[in-house]
Amino acid sequence: MATQTEKCAGEAQSFERFGAAMLSGKVSDSAYLRFQSLAAYRQINAGETVPNMDLADRFVFLASGATKLVAEASGGREQVVAFHFADDLVSIPARGPHGYTLRALTDCDILVFPSLEFMQIAHTEPVTLGEVARRALHALWRCREKAVLLGRKTAQERIASFLIATARRIGSIERGACVLSLPMSRRDIADSLGLTTETVSRQFTDLRQMGLIATSGRSEVRLLDIAGLVARSGNFSIAA
Questions:
Q1: 216 and 108 in one domain?
Q2: Cα-based distances in Å from 217 to 76, 182, 190, 214, 221
Q3: What's residue 1's pLDDT?
């Protein structure tokens, strides 16, 4: 269990990261302090759910770690809506037709903001408002891409598209290959893409046999042939 000193250090580091990502050092001192007083810092262990997120609209800034946003329907049915990584700002609506929960895939440091008050401050600071708008537009683009993926793509196209999209967000280049350390399980991927766990595992095997990827354990994936994955994803090829 973290000591109070460690929690204070974690809170300070998390807000510094939020400031670098969202405030760009260009907001007024008063706005900076208002955001700081509004932020509720939490440490969430892998497998835990952020509590009381369905009572009101919230923004969650992910300072470290990885999470999945889950939509809940009646009968215990769940859908993984999105995966989120460090520096993401996640909008979580209050409970409506569905409930939404944010679950940690790894140990996480987060800042929770009430959405209404957050936007009231953002409206006074063009830099922050612009950053929120940019992120909202990018999230909308990802939602449209996922709608196409779920509605029209084959299982192999879904997995290839998932790997390419995830590489853009958390990939790193090592020895000429793009390397992913996936924090989510095969079941999480299946729940996100509308597939079975068995289908996901089979498609990973097929892509590995084609020489497009290599895997190590359950988490590391090396993308050996990005162009080949794009060809298998059903996406348009983009000229360099």
A1: no
A2: 30, 10, 18, 10, 9
A3: 58
